[in-house]
Input
Amino acid sequence: MSLLIAGYPYIKENYLKTFDSYPGDVSFLLPKIWKAKGGKLIFKAPIRPNIYTTRSSFYHSNYPIIGGLLKGWMPFFPLYLLSALGGKKLNLDKVFSSSEPTLITTLYQGFWAKVFGKKHIIFSWENIPYKQKFKGSKGLIQMFILKLNLFFCNAIVCGNKKSAEIFSDLTKKPVAIIPLSGVDSDFFKKENIEHKFRDFDLGSKVVFTFAGALGYRKGVHLILEAMEAILKEIPNSHLIIAGSGEYEESLKLQTTNYKLQAAVTFIPWLDSAGLRELLSASDVFLYPSISFGGWEEQFGYSMAEASLMEVPVISTQTGSIEEVVLNGVTGLLIEPDNTKSLTEAMLKLGRDKNLRDNLGQAGRKYIEENFSYKVVADKFYNFFQSL
Output
């Protein structure tokens, strides 16, 4: 029987590749294009025999009145169930929606899946109980949509353990813990190259790296606060910040105010090849995520990729990070929003190459065994087959 996966996350090649290892028949319905990072990144759906595309609307969560309720909405979804993807042609029996169950987008897909007699599976990363998040009239609307999605669906895939606990309390329907995508353990592999990144010859420097969205909640400002003390103890330290986001200019101003320009390099958002190159030149990966605005880190793919590259990770004891980084085994987890703890962890790893090597090697083994493409694809297949 065939599976249809619908939703904008799978427009990204690294998400799609997970299902290259999927043992069953799978097709995708994706937006023709997807705009991310305020339009700075434009994704186009790959051309493959099993990928169908359609127009999509609403690319973010900040629209007036509706917020993100229609994020990723594909209005022609039912037509694809009826025709090109429908019924007998592909023997389609399951639809997996990769959008959150608090969205009308997911509800729309669930309703039409039921109309056409298909089993509907929904997905969530949410790791904070909804009762803590939903406030006022907006919260009532979101809870109503959530309950409708739970009514229409046949099962829920949760991206982390905390999410599974939340949904197990909300429904008796089957729940599985599987991230939306695995990570490419063949591509992200340590290479013995010179300590170089593009035109930067890093020589004997101890290179600390952050890569990701430059938002306040990622805690990058804490790294800059720590760097002054780090440079006093490890003068040959260098920090590379890769990414873009609404907090970018503030971080650059902070760098100037702390007089860190010579020790900090900003580079734009990197594709997978660029990230691999950067991680090859890195000694420690930093990801001091903090709770912010009712959100906590839900997985952390860049941390998983750093571990695959045998780069030890310093992150925080918040959200679901402990599922990706094992404290004292693959990296160090510190108290969130605590510059002193971050500084101490950076000094500990910055001074001890043997410790970095041991944590890095353990990190690759852990991620490869638990989150590689093949492992995640098999988890999806086994769960979907059980329904």
